[in-house]
Amino acid sequence: MAENITITVDGRTVDVPSGTLIIEAARKLGIEIPTFCYDDRLRPVGACRMCLVEVEKMPKLIASCATPVAPNMIVHTDSEKVVKARKGVLEFLLINHPLDCPTCDKGGECPLQDNTYTYGPAESRYGENKIRFIEDSKNQKFDDIRLGPEIFLNRNRCIMCFKCVRIVRDLAGEADLGVFQRGSFANINVLEEIELDDEFSGNTVEYCPVGALTSKSFRYKIREWLLKKSPSVCNLCSDGCNMNIEWSRGEVFRHMARRNSGVDDGWLCDRGRYGFDLSRAQDRLVRPHIRRDNKLQACSWDEASALLSKHLQNIIDTNKGSEVAAVGSPILSNEEAFAIRRFFSDVVKSENVDFQTEYPKPIEPELLDLIGLDGSIKDLESDSTFVFIGCDPAVEHPVVSLRIRKAVSTYKAKAVFISSHDKKLGYFPITNIRIPFSAEAAAVNYLVSRISGKTTGDMADFKIDPDGLNRLADNLKNAGRIHIIAGREFFNHPDRAALLVGLIKLKKSTGAKLSILPPQGNFIGVSRFGLFPSLGHSFENMLERIESGEIKTMFVFGANPIDEYPDRKYIHDVLKNLEFLVVVSPFANATASLASVVLPQAMLPDYGGTFLNIEHRAQKFTPMTENPHSDVKPAWAILGELSSLLDMGNIWYSDSQVRKVMIDTIKEIEGLDNLPDNGVVIRFPAKDGYDPGDVSLAEPETPGIDYPYIMNWTPSAHHHGWITEKSDNLMRISGKQIAWMHPDDAAREEISDGQVLRIGTAETALNLPVIITTGVNKGEILIVNSFSANPVNRLLKKGRPTTFVSVRKS
Amino acid sequence: MADFEKILFKNIDFPDQDKIDIYIKNGGYNALRKALDSMSPESVTEEVIKSGLRGRGGAGFPTGRKWTFLPKDSKRPVYLTVNADESEPGTFKDRELIEKDPHLVIEGTLLAAYAIKCGQAYIYIRGEFAFGARQLNKAIEEARAKGFLGKNILGKGVDIEIIVHRGGGAYICGEETALLTSLEGNQGYPRVKPPFPAISGLYSAPTIINNVETLSNIPYIINKGAEKFSAFGTAKSPGTKIFCLSGHINKPGNYELPMGIPLRELLYEYGGGIKDGRNLKAVIPGGSSVPLLTADKVDVRMDFESLAEAGTMLGSAGVIVIDETVCMVRAAYNLARFYQHESCGQCTPCRQGTYWILAILERIERGRGSLKDLDKLLEICENIEGNTICPLGDAATPSVKSTIHHFRDEYEYHITEQKCKVSMGPRFE
Amino acid sequence: MGTTVNKLLSEKSIKELNRLKGLYPVRKSVVLMVLHVIYDQFGYIQPEALKEAAGIMEIPLIDFHQAASFYTMFPREAVGKYHIQVCRTLSCELRGSQELVAFLKEKLEIDMGGITSDSMFSLTEVECLGSCGTAPMMQINDTYYENLTRARVEQILDDLRSKSGNG
Ligand SMILES: Cc1cc2nc3c(=O)[nH]c(=O)nc-3n(C[C@H](O)[C@H](O)[C@H](O)COP(=O)(O)O)c2cc1C
Ligand code: SF4
Ligand code: SF4
Ligand code: FES
Ligand code: FES
């Protein structure tokens, strides 16, 4: 397979691996062939015929985008025949095109316009009526169909390159966009009852070669050539997709992919793409506030800093650093994490630093080494069996899941999900093995025993139906390239220690890769660069100390424990005990409402810095150079200023300055100094052979009569965590909080699809519409999390692994 | 014409020929028995190569040679798909075979499957042939009951299944790669070649596509031997061929005759001459996709080579006879409408070009043409030809080009006088 | 993944769908055959029944709609009890298909694409049906009617009317 083939293109020879397409061989020589339907990441269709070239000894012109090289081919990309054919193609494409360029959003970045200018005929000879797609008879002049909450289509502009449908169908495996009718009436559309709202839909707009597809959030807003681009990295999940933030006069207009073939390969998910409006949201916090007369009131930075430095000075003077705690969050940059750690340990003399506000139990230090992707993102394409435990890649790692989708759809890899509710990779074939809520540890241990031929424990206690697991175990015995992936539900798991033991054993017994993937943005970065509580108290312990009065002051950076912590009432009661709470946040939130001081925090794209993604790749993001939010600051700037007021060194003016100190301190990260565009994978030395020993499985709890249902929750693909709720775009796309329940339960409760239910206990409850589906277990209610109107943690109880609820029509 | 033996239509009108007992009584399934008894798959292929049989679907590719393009010892299953989509205007031969002698089609399919070591064959039949599909399914069940089909055929350890798959009304699905895409459950979009179906076809596995008539010749070749077969017809186009006569001919219908028969003989001896004694104006000799022949060319012989020499093609041998009363602008418009309707819409030149051609012809028809339109039409044709994914683009242009070429005066008259130069009287009686 | 209750599909159709389910190495191959099942039961692609079928086949609904709109033999809206499709392509036109159409319009008192007020007949034109040697011709539901003359057409319409009247 690996042999090379030599071909000649326009008189120059080039050596390429067999299987290379002619267009790619030409590109290697710097010869650009015009295209419309070609995309090196999508299955070639050879539809537009723009890329026709002449190959000697071939009777017809051939599509260079769909034809692989053959030995000794002599290709002409600019012969008379080719030039004529291109003119012909462009003339054809324009006959039914509305030529409404002045009002089209693609203007300035339109391949149809560009190719017509360079290769097209001087004038059109077309004098017939144009085909006009009209949405409905009483519709306006232009077809302008709403395909979904974000995407609109003008079929008259469409040139049928099939890119959008290939993205939706072949890449994502979704089924919400299609081609209807045929011939000159062939057109892209959705079904009446199914919207285009899958997690990758925005890519269709970005890669449409004309202005047929537009985003509601961008269209008619600005001309492309007025936009400036700031290279950035998305931090709405831990994949770290590269993007450009496009803005003008301080206003952000859109996020566009910035292709990094090792990471995103040029795709963005809709969360990352349409979350661009977060930083300019109406209720963005842009000024400091201090509590006066028991009310948070806007003030100047000088005033706020003076208050803070006075408070800290007092602590430093009285040597009461241990009474102070700092809480960060995975939305912070590496530099911010590092600066927070530095500031609190050097200046305040407190080691009480953590960021784990979401978990019932802090992560064991040994586990830290296991967190992250085993191998590279690209490697995922060549794995042949995936076992997901407590991980929903479509929701937690949308763009990385595209690699897994490719492995499944193109290379026929198997994807098996062990969970209490069904997962999906679009319509690609996967296997769901359903287990009861939180029985993951038991299931994994069962698998291990089965694979190693040991007697398997009785699954009856855990109510696990062993058939699916038996089949999986048998498959794993013979499978190559197994990859076990644990995710969000692992971190939230009530029996995490036992699950971890099981996963490590499973890895050993199958020779698999094991990845434990935190879903949140810079989780790995902040944990590596300072926010992991290696010396001081973890967040969990901080809370106890607050209750006991040992901790009196808390700084919160980017976190929102009241929305995040798995027991809302408890955390609220605890934080109320603080004497001094400082919340640094991009938005006012539930936690901030308890604060003495609230400071406006910088977020993308107000500042620069670096993140680490799931494969430990350090990547740089840059600020826009004009910013109306002049008062928002990253953590290092706030703390640097305080240091300066306190006269304590550690004075930071820029992210690169912080980075220099980091590099001096942590030797593995030299590469951070001069990051190339595609980032650098940092290799932290792993502490080898972590063996957590044996742990016995927690007994499953059984529901009582009053509260017969187990409550479980999940994020959604477009919305996860407390921040994304601030995006109007994302709320428009998936702004509906719902619950799912099994049809048998619904029948018993006489509940019908779409009804609003009161889900909860006597004390408190959530009111949500329900969808009835066999995709969840009987006896389980699954709820979408992260909506402030109905926060799931209102129902959670600290120390209780399972939450039981009742359900009734409200 | 020299004497010849009917290969395909020998028993076509035999009462109850579609019933297996009668088919067997008339010598049916002997070839299958013979092949399984005494011939290896390779020697079946060898015999077909020797016969010189060429595809009857339109392109005339040597059938045995095509089979040898399959990879040797493929690890993937090999598929045979029988092209029964018959949608080329003027063509109705496969339908007659299927409806009246379905076992011949099945036996041919089984032999081909045996030769290429295929365990699963599909007959892709155009959706409108509901009766044909029923006939085939009935034949399959009868053959299965007699042990000719299914597992362990005739006790020889050979397994072959046949599934009759119905299309849904799309001419393009006759194109072999579109047929495969359609059979996979998608819109009938042709695929870019290479890869050729023999390497990567149905479900990306090696696949052979053959026409119904092509395969119906195989039982004879196996029974009687390659020499006997190639004794009929011409050296390069051996065998007999079913010619479909339609249009202005006294005795329309299917005629099985040796390849190379003069068109004149076909029209006047077999077809009984031009309808109602009118004069011949033109003949489209190979289905609507080939250039027409003017009346003075009726001495051409009906085989692949002779017709190519005459500037047209044998195609599917759908012979459409056009008499002197037909306005050629209207005829061109009629076919342009067909191709516009049948373009799959995948590639630009065909999708847009067929629409444009139709729009111009329609305008001329309505008396709103301009003389400049004629060159424009020819240039549009030129911009389509050779630039499309599949040959449908190329198939759409000959009717336009050859009518303009030979009957430009009728176009000009139409444009300047805003009406047909000749007008067709009532034909519906 | 909701639960669908099958309300429209007949038992026969469901049986056929289940037979088709395992017939092909790749499930999606059934798409056209499923459309035939729906067409056979309803005479057109009944959208709700299609939804049921998609659920049974576990194939995205859109795949069926894409196909139904590409393959032109499936009416996508209800048609007459007898759906008349007249071939309009060259061989048939040479033998009078235009006049045949005019005759049908007059007899049925409907336009092209129309349905008679009693929903008995609907009329459309189609491309070549592979019956050119017996032109002009038309297809009514599944059946071909060939070598048509005025007298024969009248006879056919009368027969169908009376058949339906009795049955
Ligand atoms: C637009 C188009 C339509 C075609 N229609 C048919 C058809 O209806 N039946 C057929 O056998 N071949 C048809 N063909 C030819 C097939 O592509 C293919 O060449 C043939 O089925 C091969 O079989 P053969 O080698 O036995 O002739 C068509 C080709 C094109 C380009
Ligand atoms: S909408 Fe755009 S991407 Fe989709 S087919 Fe049309 S031109 Fe291509
Ligand atoms: S030439 Fe016509 S029918 Fe063939 S692929 Fe292109 S658009 Fe489709
Ligand atoms: S770019 Fe090659 S055919 Fe479209
Ligand atoms: S032209 Fe009418 S059936 Fe062929």
In a few lines, what is going on in this structure?
The complex is a heterotrimer of chains A (810), B (429) and C (167). Helices cover 27% and strands 19% of the residues of chain A.
Q: If you consult CATH, what is the topology of the largest domain in chain A?
A: Rossmann fold
Question: C-alpha Rg of chain B, in Å?
Answer: 22 Å
Task: Determine the number of helices of chain A (DSSP H or I, runs of at least 4 residues).
Answer: 23
Q: Biggest sheet of chain B, strands in spatial order?
A: 6-5-11-8-9
Give the total of beta strands of chain B: 11
First CA to last CA of chain A: what distance? 65 Å
Radius of gyration of chain A from CA coordinates: 28 Å
- Write the H/E string of chain B, N to C: HHHHEHHEHEHEHHHEEEHEEEHEHHHHH
| Strand portion of chain A | 15-25%
Overall helicity of chain B? 40-55%
CATH architecture of the largest domain in chain A: 3-Layer(aba) Sandwich
| Structural category of chain A | alpha/beta
Describe what this molecule looks like in 3D.
The complex is a heterotrimer of chains A (810), B (429) and C (167). With 810 residues, chain A is α/β, with parallel strands linked by helices. Chain A folds into 5 domains: 4-93, Roll (Ubiquitin-like (UB roll)); 138-177 and 193-280, ADC-like domains (N-terminal domain of TfIIb), CATH 2.20.25; 289-363 and 523-681, 3-Layer(aba) Sandwich (Rossmann fold), CATH 3.40.50.740; 373-516, Dimethylsulfoxide Reductase, domain 2, CATH 3.40.228; 709-809, Barwin-like endoglucanases (Beta Barrel). Chain A contains 23 helices and 34 strands. In chain A, the strands form 8 sheets. Chain A has a 7-stranded mixed sheet. In chain A, helix 7 (301-317) crosses helix 20 (635-646) and helix 8 (334-348) packs parallel to helix 16 (523-531). The mean pLDDT of chain A is 94. With 429 residues, chain B is an alpha/beta fold. Helix content of chain B is 42%, strand content 13%. Chain B is built from 18 helices and 11 strands. Chain B has helices spanning 20-25, 30-38, 41-51, 63-68, 93-100, 102-116, 130-145, 176-183, 212-216, 218-224, 226-230, 263-270, 304-309, 328-342, 348-365, 372-384, 392-396, 398-417, and strands spanning 79-84, 120-125, 161-166, 207-211, 240-247, 253-258, 261-262, 280-284, 293-294, 301-302, 318-323. A 5-stranded mixed sheet of chain B has the order 6-5-11-8-9, with helices on one face. By secondary structure, chain C is of the alpha+beta class. Chain C folds into 2 domains: 11-70; 82-163, Glutaredoxin, CATH 3.40.30.10. Helix content of chain C is 47%, strand content 11%. A 4-stranded mixed sheet of chain C has the order 2-1-3-4, covered by helices on one side. The longest helix of chain C has 17 residues, at 150-166. The model of chain C has no long low-confidence stretch (mean pLDDT 94). Classes of the chains: A alpha/beta (810), B alpha/beta (429), C alpha+beta (167). At the B-C interface, strand 3, strand 5, strand 11 and helix 14 of B face helix 2, helix 4, helix 5 and helix 6 of C.
